[in-house]
Specification:
By secondary structure, the chain is mainly alpha-helical. Helix content is about 55%, strand content about 5%. α1 runs parallel beside α2, α1 packs across α6 and α3 packs antiparallel against α4. The protein is globular, with a radius of gyration of 17 Å. The structure holds benzoic acid (BEZ).
């Protein structure tokens, strides 16, 4: 299989962590790709995914699949792994959506300064994205710690990768301030071999 991947993308990292945690690293060849919507290039997987987004997984025996939620669930089932525990499936999927939502907001903040010409940037919109992240960090600390501390699942992986992306692209925001218990969880989670092997680069 081929994974259209970018070493800086937190969504791609999620998939690489799942590959690692489920023992499937050797089953996938990583193909460097970008998902720049402003100037799609040959590096965007538009032939395999009309949205041109990453990650996109080209399977050996079927059409390409995307996005990270679909790919992670496919890989979990392919390996017979237990990242989607049935007794707490809705909480797990909601936690995954929560981590992905932090990633969405954090990536949009990056895109605003990377792709939008300075003259038409909208600082209030950027701050609105950060407010969304702040509220979500507070909710994670207030309501989700016991789930985060339980057996490994896809929700934890999404949140771990989202927090790693905040460190990578938004270090000045100091997300740990006021979220000490979540920061302690993140430090422990970040020490997992799968997280160490997938540190963002770019
Ligand atoms: C980044 O450089 O932060 C990035 C790259 C690809 C996808 C998302 C984010």
């Amino acid at each position: 299989m081929k994974l259209f991947d970018n070493a800086a993308s937190p969504f791609c990292r999620k998939v690489r962590v799942v590959l690692h945690e489920t023992g499937q690293l050797d089953a996938v060849e990583l193909v460097h790709a970008t998902g720049n919507p402003v100037a799609p290039t040959a590096a965007a997987p538009t032939a395999q995914n009309p949205l041109g987004k990453i990650p996109t997984l080209l399977r050996d025996d079927g059409p390409a699949i995307y996005d990270s939620r679909v790919i992670c669930r496919f890989l979990n089932d392919r390996a017979g792994a237990a990242l989607y525990p049935q007794p707490r499936i809705w909480e797990t999927l909601t936690l995954e959506a929560t981590g992905d939502g932090i990633m969405d907001a954090a990536v949009l903040m990056v895109y605003e300064s990377r792709f939008r010409p300075e003259a038409i940037r909208f600082p209030d919109w950027v701050e609105g994205q950060w407010d969304k992240i702040e509220r979500t960090l507070t909710a994670l600390e207030g309501r989700w710690l016991s789930h985060l501390e339980g057996p490994l699942d896809i929700g934890q992986i999404a949140v771990g990768c989202a927090l790693g992306y905040l460190d990578f692209r938004h270090p000045d925001r100091d997300w740990r301030k006021g979220h000490g218990a979540l920061a302690d969880w993140a430090a422990e989670f970040a020490a997992r071999p799968s997280m160490q092997a997938s540190l963002p680069v770019g």
